[in-house]
Structure formats: C-alpha cells, structure tokens
Amino acid sequence: MTRREALKLLLAAGITTPRAFAQAMERPEVLYDLPPFGDITLLYSTDLHAQLRPHYFMEPPNLLAPRALEGRPGYLTGEAALRYYGLQRGSLEAHLCTYVDFVALAERFGPLGGAAYVGALIKRQRAQAGVERTLVLDGGDTWTNSGLSLLTRGQAMVEWMNRVGFDHMVFHWEYTLGRERVEELVGALEARVVSFNIVDDLFGDPIYPPYAIHTIGGYALGVIGFSFPYVKVSHPEEFSQGLSFGVREHELQRYVDELRGMGVDAVVLLSHGGVPLDTALAARIRGLDLILSGHTHDFTPRPVRVGSTWLAAGGSAGKAVLRLDLKMRKGGIADLRLRTLPVATSVLEPDGELEHFLQEAYALHSGYLGQVLGTAQSLIYKRDSLYSTFDELAGRAIRAAYPEVEVAFSPGTRWGTTILPGQPITMEALLAFTSFTYPEVYVFKLKGERLHAVLEDVAANAFNPDPFYQQGGDMSRVYGISYELAVNAPTGQRVRSLEVGGQPLEPSREYVVAAYGGRLQRSGTPLERYTPRPVYDVIAEYIRQVKTVQIPPRPALRVLDQSYVVPAWGG
C-alpha cells in the first residue's frame, strides 16, 4: 500500500487526530491495535458461507419490516443504518455495514474477507488480548455454499477452522451436507459443537452438549449453543433425518437457570437464530448476559441492549470479526466493549500458514473454479428483501435453457458474493451464489392458484410481525411474474395484482414453472421430458453464450405500503 492510499483509507476509517495519524501512517495496521480492557475476550465470526477468498459483498438495499419491527436492529439498512449507529458516510465501517456508495467504496477499499485474512485477524487479536483469556466462537453457516466447500463436502472448512483454533460452533446450512457427513466432520473438528436445541427425534435427547463452561481470570462463563431452529422447514427433511430442532424457549430457560445454579458468573448464547428472534428471546429469557447473533447477516456496529442482555451480530461473508472485551463482576458482565473489525485486505497481511493451506486446497480444483465464463457489465448482487440482479440472471438463464418455462423461482437465500461492473464472472463466483447440495432445476406444471398461495406463504413467513414465526430467508424471487406487495396486510392478502407474461394470473390454469434450491417441484406435475440439471450448469451455459451480462436492476414488483429502494445503475 502506498502512503497516499494509506492516507485515504485512514481518513475514511475515521482516524483524524494528529497522534493517531502519525502512528497509523507508519503502520496502517494500527487500526487493529486495541487497548486491553476487562477480563475476558470473545472473538466471533459467523455466516462465512465458506467464502474462502477475498471478495465483495453488498449489504441489502432493502430490509422490509412489518410495522411492529420497523426501525429496529435486524431491519436497518442504507441511510437508516448510518443514522442509527452513527456511522460516517464514506468510511470503511459504513462500507462494511451498508450498501451506500457501494461500487465507489469497493473500488476504494478493495475486497474484504478471505479465510487467510480472517484467520490472521483472529490469531492477532487472540495474541493481543491474551490467549489464556480469549475464546474464539463461530455462529454457524460456515461449512457450505462455496465452490471449494461443495467440491470437498465441507472438508476444507473444517481443516481451516482447526488451523485457526476455534473453540465452539453451532449449525444451520451445515446440515445440507446430510446428517452422516456432518457427524463425520464433527469427528474431525477440534472445536466443540454446543447446541441445546438439536435433539434426537425418538427420545428428545440433545445430540451435542447444550453448553460449555470456561473459567477465565477467576470468572466462570457459560456458553449455550442455539442452532437454527427451522432446519426442517428451510431444507429438505432428508438431510437431517432423525433430528428435531425448534426454538425450545422453555428448555433454554432451564439451561440458563442450571448454569446460574452452578455459580456461573455470566451466560452467553451463541446463536444462529437471527437478530429479530434473538432480540425477542433476550426480552423473554431471564439470566442471559450476552447474545452473539448470526443467521440474518446483520451487523451491529454498536452493541444493542435489550433489558439486561447485550446483543451483538457479526454480519456475514467473512467481512468482519467481532471482538468483545468483557469486564466481569461476580454474577454478571459489568461492562462490554465491542469492536467490529473489518477484514480489509488492503491493510491486513494474510496468515502465511493459512495461505499455503488454501493454495494447496484450491490447486486440485483450480481448472474448474478458475474458468472465466464472461464479464459483468453491471452490478450483480444477491441480498435484498425481494429482488436481485443475480436472481434475474438466473431467470434469464433458465428461460434460455427451457423456452417453455413461463415462471422461474429462485430461493431468497442471503449468501453469495457481489460482482462489480467490469469484473470477470468465474465459475467460482457463480458457485458463490449457487452452491447448494440440492442444486437441480426442475420443470413442472403448477396451477395459478398454487403460484399465488406459494408467494403468500413466503410473505407470511418473511413479514410476520412475531419473530418466533419467521422461519428464515428473504422473499422468493420470481422471473416472469409481476405483482404488488402489501407488507402489513393480513395473512393471505399481501400479494396482489399478479400477472404472468403481462397477463392477469388465471387461478385454474396450469403454468410451466421452473424452480431450484427448494421443494416447490413436489407441489406440481413434473414434465418428464426435462432432466433436472444443476442450476450452476444452466447459468454457466447462458453466460458463455451471451459473454457479457448487463442487468440494470428493474424489479417487476411494487411495494404498496413501504419505501422500496432500487440501487442506482452500477450500484
């Protein structure tokens, strides 16, 4: 990094005092030199989704909320997030946590994340805080959803975690590898899985220890694990055969009380429940001191306080590591300092051992993952409440492969990457959006009334005002359909004015539909002449044909009762 580049970075990161400038200009990495505080340090990473290389990931332009939850953490994006957390527009922290000025700031700060950089930051912070007083925690969604994780069936991720030195983790998408494979990988994992709410179907016994106790600096800290409660709903049930999940609120209270009865000073919930649900739990569970929240990919640059419980969320995609320094007292946390540390590749040096490991891991698959399929001429992004340019690309590709298809469904997953205008589109980048273990595109017939019902069901899930009934993911994406959405309408009345191909939806007519990454095909009549193919093969074939991908964001929908932001051309 040149001195001029370092100056720009430090200004944008908010380092403005003369002394800080003097130090930082000589050592830009001073951004990560934190003064010691308190008695226990927690380092927290979540929702990496196996993105092992530095990349770009744009935060959602829209996080539509039911009226009862508007303006709260979990539904803050763009300018609203800047205001709520007091972030300076144009700063590295603002770029990390919002989509505002995304393309310009991506070009200024460079790619974020990457397993060698995440690991280097964790190792450095652990050494800085003191190895003996530090726990390294993973919030789940770490083993799946990239090309390398798909090709190694999660093995590369476990080996990376072992080299970094994680202490505990919880689960969600990990179970899409299948229960047998998960248990194989747990056997190779040096971190201990804790999860009170993954239980045996037959007897109801926890599969993993519900909690762990650590004595640090004379204080006892209990860590309870909470895996995603709706695995059976969000993924085909065969992946987690023999297991049950669920919120299990009363059992959580029982474990908190059990730890308190054992004399534990503070209780931390390592959660993959998501910020809305975790906030609701914080208000209802007595005796929780801190929740480390994952699943919804939110950042909380400043800690959130719910009654007597702190809450901090760690974002996603390897963009940041949270450092929480806890000043303890007997029976609780006296004070807490949170730092959301960007994994900025323009400042950090990668860990040499991890870099070597990754080079070896990728070497076997570089020919496949490194294929250049085409070039992006506009911003290709995924995350949003309702629409993304990647999902429109998927719809175009499916229509090109199956001209008979009238409607194409894409799942409202939150993971992926972002491809800037002018960047090549590689197979690895495509797999960052599409690395399902059930990737097949199915073509089938579905009645119009069922199409409407499916969208209403998804809307009832996504916009339920009670977080206990939100079962994960954004709104499903549809190509070929236009509609209006009333977020706050009663259940069954949110989706209106549906049209297919510019014509009003006919309830009794059978439409030719394509879908991937879900179970919708089970509701329809399969068209036997179409053999299911992985969606990434379908999209790769299309990109090779068109060579350049230009998709200005133009969603074929209208939100009736809330503001909906369409990103400016180019982001």
Blueprint (SSEs and pairs):
Elements: H1 3-12, H2 18-26, E1 40-45, H3 78-85, H4 92-97, H5 102-109, H6 115-129, E2 134-138, H7 147-152, H8 155-164, E3 168-169, H9 179-188, E4 192-193, E5 199-200, E6 211-216, E7 219-226, H10 231-234, E8 243-244, H11 249-261, E9 266-271, H12 275-284, E10 290-293, E11 304-306, E12 309-313, E13 320-329, E14 332-342, H13 352-363, H14 366-369, E15 372-376, H15 389-401, E16 407-410, E17 424-426, H16 427-434, E18 440-447, H17 448-462, E19 477-479, E20 481-485, E21 495-500, E22 503-504, E23 510-515, E24 525-526, E25 533-534, H18 535-546, E26 548-549, E27 557-559
Helix pairs in contact: 6-13, 8-13, 15-18, 16-18
What do these coordinates show?
Residues 392-516 form the 5'-Nucleotidase C-terminal domain. This is Mannosylglucosyl-3-phosphoglycerate phosphatase. One of its GO terms (molecular function) is nucleotide binding. Keywords: Hydrolase, Nucleotide-binding. By secondary structure, the chain is an alpha/beta fold. It has three domains: 1-33, no CATH class; 38-55 and 111-357, 4-Layer Sandwich (Purple Acid Phosphatase, chain A, domain 2), CATH 3.60.21.10; 371-559, 5'-nucleotidase,  domain 2 (Alpha-Beta Complex). The protein contains 18 helices and 27 strands. The strands form six sheets. Strands 4-3-2-1-13-14 form a six-stranded mixed β-sheet. The chain has a six-stranded mixed β-sheet with strand order 6-7-9-10-12-11. Strand 13 (320-329) and strand 14 (332-342) form a beta hairpin. It starts with a helix and ends in a 12-residue tail after the last strand.
